[in-house]
């Protein structure tokens, strides 16, 4: 059995009871890293559940790249490593930050695993996502009643513009590389005063910034998101 | 201190460690119900954390109504009850199903509390939402890469249509009262074969239905949602 386990947004106390139980029980834990020898955020969050004397930790390398060939090779290699352990009869847990359904590498690996191991048994254990965590830390409701929400990334400005016009709340992920352009768009749409930036929600170094204009041209963490809540 | 605590989608093991700790520690637990004497879903989920001999359980009545006057009175009454306990120096936890930021009554109550108790200290503890749980149970990724997601309810067909055209994944909540109309729309858009219905994700009686056309005219649970994942 393979478990895809969300470990939550950062605070180790935001693991679910189920994630804690499974991560501490399985003989093999699969940990995604983006560089050889680097620390894993997901593993740091789940550290208190792991026992390196009793469990095997298998690191899976997913380089930060946009080149399809590089990514596909990484996903296939990871799937092969996982398949090897599962075929040997060992249960494993694949750790993902936040929730496994939201922007996680686990989706790609699972797709490959299911095609090469048709008899694969898999269970996904949902986790608290960084979106819900950021809403909580900034005391911003994401939606009430019959309102709607869009979740977009900072990569497509046209999509962002349409989302800002069509939805009550827009959550913008991966804002760091495009922050100033996103800010321009929010100012154009008259929404810069109705947004909040949350950096590293529930982790060390967390910041909640309501004056988002003050961040123009500034450095920010990769794990930053904006919540635009239209009044 | 008031804690707004998400208890997750239904499986008691999907509570976070933090929710479990806070719910079992606070002297007062606020529990939303929709009818006097009715069971509370959120309280059932958190039952294993509660000790009625040591904790006071305060039920807050939120009638299932669309009449603004009825709702506003309920929110104000709830806020007054909570304010009374907090002023007496007692910490309390307000339980919400799923995550407090998503379609929860807590948002309305908090708004009222903050205006009548400016010195209010409040912390929201995010939870696993039913959206993440449904994605997990149906093994459907919500988004990868730079994809976008819309979350809408079954109340606005125009909004649904636009969302289906503009986003990679559309999550439709509160589908029960409008199921057949939603199905018509998905068929018109050629998307009925790319959707999955999840009922009572992670709770007793859970159902994951891929053949969503088979549900036309059928009864379904209030806690049902559709995930449309465009290929």
What do you see in this structure?
Two copies of one chain form a homodimer. By secondary structure, chain A is α/β, with parallel strands linked by helices. Helix content of chain A is 32%, strand content 22%. The first copy, chain A, contains seven helices and ten strands. In chain A, strand 8 (195-199) and strand 9 form a beta hairpin. Strand 6 (149-153) of chain A pairs antiparallel with strand 6 (149-153) of chain B.
Structure summarized in a few sentences:
2 copies of one chain form a homodimer. Chain A is of the alpha/beta class.
Please tag this protein with its features.
homodimer, 231 residues, alpha/beta, five-stranded mixed β-sheet, 10 strands
Biggest interface, residues from each chain: A-B, 59 and 59 residues
N- to C-terminal separation of chain A?
Answer: 46 Å
Largest sheet strand order of chain A: 3-2-4-1-5
Q: Could you say which overall geometry of chain A the principal axes of the C-alpha atoms support? A: elongated
Write down the overall mean pLDDT of chain A. Answer: 96
How many distinct beta strands of chain A?
10
User: From the alpha-carbon coordinates, what is the Rg of chain A to the nearest angstrom?
Assistant: 19 Å
> What assembly state would you assign to the polypeptide chains in this entry?
homodimer
Counting H and I runs of at least 4 residues, what is the number of helices of chain A? 7
Indicate the low-confidence ranges of chain A by residue numbers: none
Derived structural class of chain A: alpha/beta
Beta-strand fraction estimate of chain A: 15-25%
- SSE order of chain A: EHEHEHEHEHEHEHEEE
Largest sheet of chain A: 5 strands, parallel
Helix content of chain A: 25-40%
